[in-house]
Amino acid sequence: MREKRRGGQIFYIYNNIATIKDKKSEILSILPNMKIEIMHSQIDQKESIRIIEEFSEGKFDILLATSIVESGLHLPNANTMIIDGANRFGIADLHQLRGRVGRSNKEGYCYFMVQDKNKLTEDAIKRLVALESNSYLGSGTALAHQDLAIRGGGNIIGEAQSGHIENIGYALYIKMLEDAIAILSGETTEEKINVDIKLTVSAFISSDFIREDRIRLELYRRLSKAKDKAEVYLILEEMEDRFGKLDIPTKQFIDLIFIKLKSLEKNIKTISNYEMNISIIYNDDKKQVIKSPSRDDDDILGTVLKFLN
Fold this sequence. Notes:
This protein is elongated. The protein has twelve helices and nine strands. The longest helix is centred in the last third of the chain and has 18 residues. The protein is of the alpha/beta class. Helix 5 runs antiparallel to helix 6 and helix 11 packs parallel to helix 12. The strands form two sheets. A five-stranded parallel sheet has the order 2-3-1-4-5, sandwiched between helices.
């Protein structure tokens, strides 16, 4: 009712298609003046599009839906969410769901409702406490680590839910595993040559540009594995097509990838800078120093790229 009074709309998440119509009747018995539409995976695409369009136009108050709405929706006027039976969802699902509210200049509210908190399992309590404790912007990474700690990382091919993964992190564990499998299967016979780039620039895939942590991590992985400029340009084209024009930190991260690829071609092992002085060290320990016009990020990156080209 508070959301209705301020002219907003509500998501009600109920993840049971078989009884979702009963849930609609239950809500209407409490709030008979509310307009409610139902959406779930068994509704055909054309009808789903109609429902979302009408919801975005404010034609009804409550979208009663399954977790099908957890990603890809931007509805700035819907800023209250009630998740029924939140203990039956995973951390990632709940985090994605609550990301559907608070997407404008209005404060968003997301309520995790449970039938009986005294009957919750230990893991369910841990999940809900983790979500309550990590509700700040950019908390996805912290939640991913807590989710892994709750469920256990396992050893991929066995039953045990323990091992070195807890100490070194999931991403590094997977990379080490991939490298070890490649060596044992004869796909690679020697360690890859790498380049150490230590430039004092702000270069990262910005959460303002791509909000979803999962997508950002996947792009980091793909860009780090890119073998040439053509592959990077394909990924760059995909990013711009999906998310629009790159912001400055993201563009500068792409520049770092180009610097890395060019450095590998030229047998460079380290590029670093102290203020405007940029040091380049080759694999044979030969050293070269170049100077940037200023300490600005774009000047440092531009000077390095110009030198390498």
